Amino acid sequence: MTLSQAHYLKDHIEKFMSFLPNAESNLHALTQLTMHGFVIGENRMPFTFAKHEDKIKRMSSWVKGSSNTVRKKKMDQILNFWSCNLYHEDDVSTFQQKPFYKIDNFIFQFPWLTAFQNVNTMMINYVRKLHKNRLELKNETDNIELNLAEKFKKAGFEVFCQYHPLDREVGEIDLIAVYENHVIVVEVKSTYIKSSIQEIYEYRNFTLNKAAYQLSKKVAHVRNEFLNQYFENLDDVKTHSWIIDTTLEFDHQYFDHHLKISIDEIIISLNGKVDFMDSIIGGRFDVEEVANSIDPLKFIDDIENDRFWKHQIGNYDSFMNRMIGKLDA
Q1: What average pLDDT score do residues 105-115 get?
Q2: Which of 19, 113, 193, 328 yields a CA-CA distance of 20 to 30 A from 304?
Q3: What is the domain count for the chain?
């Protein structure tokens, strides 16, 4: 999907912008773009279309595989996964979850829409919103907590995952991470990006406020009952309480003194991949890079001072230009 976005940005959006200064109107520039497509034998209309099997052949070169047959099979699965079947009454997905539209054997796509979609949240919405009642949900949420705990452990923290206090009113504590005199108490949430004002309102005022209320009880238990088992002097202990969610909304805001953060930021930072875009653009897609070691104290300080996103957003234009340049090459 990232390659698809880069393609549309380069060959549709960027080309349209090059026609715009000398065009009489946006429509005139769009007409020039369309005619340019006819000349070079490519579709440069406001929507693209192809037969399902032709789309598979064209995009299969982007997929890793040992043979053409394997790559085409994987691409077929990818297209089926990301396509909204407009004839299927049970398909309730929207452009926010799936970028391809299917009618009979034809696949349609809108370049202007795809180019600026949030790929990360599309994935979350597909699973977390469209299939929120599936039987596997509880196990998947547990796995998120266990995987997150493993990341903290590899980074040098002493970790207590899915901790059950004797006081049942406190409830399960998803994660406690300890490093020197720093203790992080985590409430993990698994939600989806909101597509209406009502969903945004309910997420902020119910989901996040409820998470903060639960976290307050758990932090109090950790301070009063848990820490005295590991620290002789609690005066020097610094407690950090984080709500870690699978979406970016209301990121780095505080809810009853608890910091809300995205799981993306946490995992990338714990892997020592703050410059992950450099490795994506300059590295190879088929080689898994080794995670870098991190300083746990610096990690905590960077998270609580929002340095990760300041770095990513500040370098966004440079990253995209380099990605487009790599595709040109």
Answers
A1: 90
A2: 193
A3: 2
